[in-house]
Every structure is written in structure tokens, then in C-alpha cells.
Design a protein that fits this description.
The protein is of the alpha+beta class and 204 residues long. It has helices spanning 2-15, 21-29, 86-91, 112-121, 123-149, 152-162, 172-179, 183-199; strands at residues 32-36, 41-43, 51-57, 60-65, 71-77, 82-83, 98-101, 105-111. It has 2 domains: 2-148, Jelly Rolls; 150-199.
């Protein structure tokens, strides 16, 4: 599991190049690892998330259950991303969302209390936490803008542009709920786009 921890610590170093070995060793001292199977729940709704999850390998889906009992996808979390309901985590309040493995996943867990103590001991950890929060906020802002400013086809094209590797890893049902598009409509949009690609002349 040394490689798993090292991969996570390298992401810390990439975000905060000034981090010292002492600080990295402190971070590492609190880490644990979860190995989950497909369909296994990493975070359940109505529970308080005590750890941030860094995805070393695999893929998770964040979703909530609406009043009709339907699962509505809100995010997909792939390798080198964090499985977290950020606002609920920082306030230590129950989350509204489930985080479920779409693929077998290995997740590095960073405990809330360990993070808070690190903030007190090491100023660089506060910077690291702030930068992670900013990244989460940017992703959320993009998602809001996609619904406000884009139609169904534009949202799908944007998804292809930003997450080309996820198209074959995510089911059409999960993707349609994430994009806010009826499954049948998304199928038509995909066929239209595929047909247009076929019709385009080859650039030789």
C-alpha cells in the first residue's frame, strides 16, 4: 500500500510544492485505505462524513434520491479526485448524498480530525485545504453554469470535452440524470453527434 499513499502525497506536493517532509509524514500518519467493490457505498446519505476520500483507482458516483425515488447523479469521481460533500464535511453535518462505486475502487481516507490538527500545526496545510476548496468550488460553478447557459446537447458536448475518458465508463442512465436529460433524448443526441462525425470529410 506504500504506492497508494505515495501517489496521494505526490498530489499534495504538486498542489503545495513548499510542503516539507515533516508535514508529509504528518499527513501520512493519519491515512487509511478502503478497498471497495462495484456498487459498494463509500458514503451514505444522512450520515456525517468523518473522512475525505482520495480516489487512487476506480470510479464513484455521487447521487441523491428525489421525491419519486429516482437516483439523480450529481458528480462522478475518478482517479486523483476527492469523494466528498464539501460543505457538509467542513460543517460536520449529515450529507444529502450517497457516493457509490461504479468500478472497484481503492480510496485513501484522510480523517477530519487529522486535517483540523494539521491546520493548527502546519500553515501549509491550511493553504492546501484552501486550494482544494477552491477547486471544488470551480467544479460546482461550471455545473451550475452548464444548466443556466447550455441546452441539453451543449451540456453533453461539454461533458465529452471535459471528461472524454468517462463516456465509456458511465452508464447512459447515470449520465442522463447527471446532465438533466431524459435517457431517450440523450440517446438521440448521441446518435446525432455520431452521425455528424461520420459525415465529416477526412482531413488528409
Amino acid at each position: 500500500m506504500t504506492e497508494v499513499f505515495q501517489t496521494y502525497l505526490e498530489t499534495v506536493r504538486a498542489i503545495c510544492p513548499q510542503v516539507s517532509e515533516v508535514e508529509l509524514n504528518y499527513i501520512k500518519s493519519g491515512l487509511t485505505i478502503s478497498e471497495l467493490k462495484t456498487k459498494q457505498i463509500y458514503i451514505s446519505a444522512n450520515t456525517i462524513q468523518k473522512e475525505i476520500g482520495f480516489v487512487y483507482s476506480g470510479l464513484l458516483r455521487g447521487y441523491y434520491i428525489d421525491n419519486n425515488g429516482s437516483q439523480i447523479s450529481i458528480k462522478f469521481i475518478r482517479e486523483n479526485e476527492f469523494a466528498i460533500d464539501f460543505s457538509a464535511f467542513i460543517e460536520q453535518k449529515p450529507s444529502m448524498y450517497y457516493f457509490q462505486c461504479i468500478e472497484p475502487s481503492i480510496i485513501v481516507n484522510i480523517p477530519y480530525q487529522h486535517i483540523q490538527l494539521g491546520y493548527e500545526k502546519f500553515p501549509v496545510m491550511e493553504r492546501y485545504g484552501r486550494l482544494i476548496a477552491e477547486e471544488v468550488l470551480k467544479i460546482l460553478q461550471k455545473r451550475i453554469e452548464s444548466f443556466l447557459l447550455g441546452n441539453a446537447e451543449q451540456r453533453y458536448l461539454k461533458f465529452l470535452e471535459e471528461y472524454p475518458d468517462l463516456v465509456k465508463r458511465v452508464s447512459i442512465s447515470n449520465l442522463s440524470s447527471f446532465l438533466g436529460i431524459e435517457r431517450q433524448s440523450l440517446t438521440r443526441i448521441r446518435k446525432k453527434i455520431d452521425l455528424n462525425l461520420v459525415k465529416q470529410p477526412n482531413n488528409i
